[in-house]
Amino acid sequence: MLVDATPGHDLLSFMDAYSGYNQILMHPDDQEKTAFVTERGTFCYKVMPFGLKNAGASYQRLVNKMFTKMLGTTMEVYIDDMLVKSLVAQQHIDHLRQSFDVLNKYGMKLNPTKCSFGISSGKFLGYLVTHRGVEASPDQIRSIESIESPRCIKDALQDFKTYLKSPPLLSKPKDNETLFVYLAVSDTAISAVLVREEENNQHPVYYVSKTLLDAETRYIRLEKLTLALVVAARKLRPYFQCHSIKVLTTYPLKNILHKPELSGRLTKWAVELSEHDISFHPRSAMKSQVLADFIADFTPCENLKAEKELVSLTDDTTIGK
């Protein structure tokens, strides 16, 4: 949602706090809880160190309190990534001055090597935000460029790769607008594409994919499709909460999830999905389905081996907890 609120602004400034966590003082009563032993003695932190379980949440609460009057209008903040935005370029200096006043008030320091001021586009939370919209970051499309071409359809695939690596604009949904979801599965991965329709044309909102674990690769196809929808609902929760969702599929997911005799993981997933306004409709045309299929087929599966090793090293008594 922070990324969606950024496009359409004339000027942007990206700021990064200098060792952000270390700028928060530890409460004196809690300093001893950060103690560590060295050959020269026992020491503890007077400032919040990196690695504490709730450090990120504590830092987010701090910046939310600091910039509460600016958030959502002239500023967006996620942990130590700060963005000042102006719809009109002439107002950008004033908006920067307001943010600097807050930083000075709380004594927060910035890392000048990671700050960019008064630019029209830049990377924010992994996405390239511009005045026109949200584009895929070059880092995100690099894996597409490295896909090996089958010899029999080399030219066709090369053209498809060229099209896909051209950074697309991700569309921002309108309030209360119905969104559509396409699902796809392969032997090792699942994917979903969230799209919106405007003038009978579909525009991508987000892409989601996940490499399947060893046990998940043995799910039947309907279970994999349901898992793809669950993963999309978790990763894109703000969209599923604020919009009606139409799932376009040729599979009877509605009948499966609404069966009273469901048991096991399908019951768990059905309960989880029931909190959203989701309806299922037959897919009348391919449209964005080809993108979902492509993502599922070409999602890297190199993490599969590492995940297997992690499971094999885990005590059996902890797996079911």
TrEMBL record:
CDD domains named among the record's database cross-references: RT_LTR
Annotated PROSITE patterns: RT_POL
Domain of life according to the entry: Eukaryota
Boundaries of every Reverse transcriptase domain copy: 1-129
InterPro entries cross-referenced by the UniProt entry: DNA/RNA_pol_sf (IPR043502), Rev_trsase/Diguanyl_cyclase (IPR043128), RNA-dir_DNA_polymerase (IPR053134), RT_dom (IPR000477), RT_RNaseH (IPR041373)
Keywords: Endonuclease, Hydrolase, Nuclease, Nucleotidyltransferase, RNA-directed DNA polymerase, Transferase
GO molecular function, one term: endonuclease activity
The protein's name: Reverse transcriptase domain-containing protein
